[in-house]
Each structure stands twice: as structure tokens, then as C-alpha cells.
Amino acid sequence: MANLRSSAKEVGELSTLEEVTIEKLVHGGQGLGSLPDGRRVFVWNALPQEVLKIRLLKAKKGFAEAIAEEVIKASPDRVEPVESASYLATSPWQMMNFAAENRYKKDILIETFEREKIKLPEFEFIHDDRELGYRSKMEFGLWGDDDGINLAHFVRGSHGKTKVKGSALAPKELNQAAAAVLAEINSYKMRAGDIKSLMARTDQAGHAVVALFVKREDFRRIKKPTNVQGLAVYYSNPKSPASVATKLLYVEGERTLHDTILETDFSYDVLSFFQVNLPVFEKAAQRIKSFVKGSKNIVDLYSGVGSIGIPVGAHVLVEIEEANAAMAIQNVGDKHIEVVHASTEKALDCITSKSCIIVDPPRAGLHAHVTQKIIDVKPPKVVYLSCNPSTQARDVKLLTDAGYKLTTFEGYNFFPRTPHIESLAVLELM
Questions:
Q1: Which domains, and CATH codes, for the chain?
Q2: Contact between residue 150 and residue 197 where contact means Cβ atoms under 8 Å apart
Q3: Which of 24, 234, 340, 394 is most buried by its number of CB atoms within 10 A?
Q4: pTM, two decimal places
């Protein structure tokens, strides 16, 4: 009975609206406040100094998560979201002005590193003027109803979905390609339950490739729309909720896209690890190139298809994913660059005392073996681009404690209207 009483209490708690005042924004994108009982609460659709009526999404003993249902006192930074019905799913910072977004992201970087007792040097927070239409890769869920199959996003804080026509974050060519493939699917009267997701990607010239992740190996062949350069259909294990390619079923058209970074030509496909906001990424790549200039042995770890290492003059690329490594070899061409197909923690011999190391790891940050190898052999310079300032701060703390100095730091807004932050740290051996 104790468990039943606890469950009933939590259901009642989650159905109640509470009034809170927001203190600040935190890493992750929520506003932070306190409930009347003293528990800390992390709130979506919230800005500092706002007074809000919130609905609890998760209620734990020490904290809660919530979403603002009513704004009692609004921040002067609040604006009307472009996608009023769906923005919280993919771009929950649409409700603030762009200047405020960049200011808050810089503040979050400073606070994140302060938690590791690292005082950042004065730094720029770098972006361009595009708030929307910048994201060259999008994944959509699907929702079937009486109108057929629709593009959809999960509703934040629930297991439900909301129908969408596309995304304001994406260029029109991407949205048009996704809509065209969806129309083709609907012309065959397919079941929404047979398809996991639709992923679309465009290059800077507007060429579009679409991937479908389906739950049946006998999924029927569909026609490629004329405005889509390539259509790839992948069987994805239905036991996994993730859109992971288990088996390529077929390709219609050409799935390879092409772009240029720092005057270097790149090929990649819809699944490749390749940046989705190329103009801002190129600003970071230019800075990395200036930091490694003159180094005799530049090693790019977690290299993807080589989008950092090749244009900045790396001598070695290390990449774990087979398709990315193969594309990196293609992008290297006749340049004298070695591509090592291995996980970074299995390619530690590439880290030497004479190497200049570039790292752009996944959100988990540097593998512990990689950090320890750097500490042991002490390469003169480490250039660290990160998509997760929290794990970057952890790694920078370990390296500075081992004799490195943080000489340069920069923040980047690769993902406007979302809480995601990229940051670039340069560490030099003292």
C-alpha cells in the first residue's frame, strides 16, 4: 500500500500548478527556481526574474522538473516564439530575443567553468546573424491519423507527439524535401507504425538527401521525389527506439552531398558526422587553423569525415565510425594525411610529446585513457572544441592541474534558439 499511496501523491502533485520565481538559466536550458517546500525546480519556458505558473513534469524528493504554463511577470527578453505549438520540442529558446540568448549562453559558460574552479580569460561569444533556417540536418518523428502520416516532434515533458509541417530551424529546401518524401509515402497508404523516423539533410547549395528509418526489412520501394537528390532507406532494429541504421535496404539517386570549408572540398552523406551550421563552424575552423599553425605533427582525434583536421593541416586523423573513416579517406585524396580507423582510446600511440592535439569529442568528453595519455606524454598544445561545456570543463581542470595553461577560450552559437553551446579551449604546456 505504501507504493500505491506514493504513486497517488505524485500524480496529484504533477497535476497541480505552482507559482515560482526564476533565478537564472542553467546548463541544459531550463530556468532554476524553488518550490514552496524548498525543493529546487528546473523549468522549461522560463527566463530569469520571471514569475510563472508551472506544471510539474517530474517530482523527486530533492528536486523537480516543470514547464511554465502561464507567465505572470515576463522578462523584457521574452518574445513570441515563431513556432508557438512545437518550439519547446526542438528549439526551446525561441521565446527570448537573440541578443539575450547569446548573453545567457556566455554566462552559462562562465558559471560552468567556475564550478570546476576555473576562471576563464576574457572571451568572445561568436555567432552570425541567422537565428533560423541555419540547421542543415533535421530528424522528424512520424504520426499517423485520419489525415495520413504526418511529420511530428515529441512534446517536451510527455510521450505524446505534435504534428509539424517542418522546422523553422531548417532551410526551406530541407523542409520541402521532407514534405515531398512524406507525400510519396502517403501515396502508398503505408502504416505510420512501420516507419521510425525521417531524416533530411542539405548542403549549402540546397541539394537535399533524405533517409527513412523503417521497422520492416521488406519495406516496399518508394519513388524518389524530383526535388530530392537522394533517398536512402534503412532498416532499423524495432527493439531500439533510436534511429540507428541496422541495414541499408536501398538507395534512390545520389546520397552524397558536397560542401567547402576553408577552401577545402568535402563529401559526406546524410548520416555522416558533419557540422549542421557551416558558416559558424567555419569561423571556429579558421581559429583552430591559426592556433595550430607551424606545428610539425598535428593529430585530429574524433575526426569524423575530417572537417576540422583536413583544412587546418592535420597529419593524422583518428575516427571510430567506419563510414566516417571511409569518407575521411575520400576527402583526404592525395594529401599526405594518415587516417586511423579506431576509437581514440585505442589509438593512444598517435598522442606523442611532439604532437599538437586537436579534439572534438562527443558529449561525454574525453575518454579517461585519452586524458591520462595527454598528461603522461605532455604534447605541447591541445586544441579542444566541445559540444558540452560541462565535460569540457572537467577535462580542462584535469589538464590544468597537470601543468597545462588555458591560454585562449571562445564560445560559439552553432545552434541558435536552442540551449546547446559549443566552446573552444586552447591549452599549452607550461
A1: 2-78 (2.40.50.140), 103-130+277-429 (3.40.50.150), 137-258 (2.40.50.1070)
A2: no
A3: 234
A4: 0.93
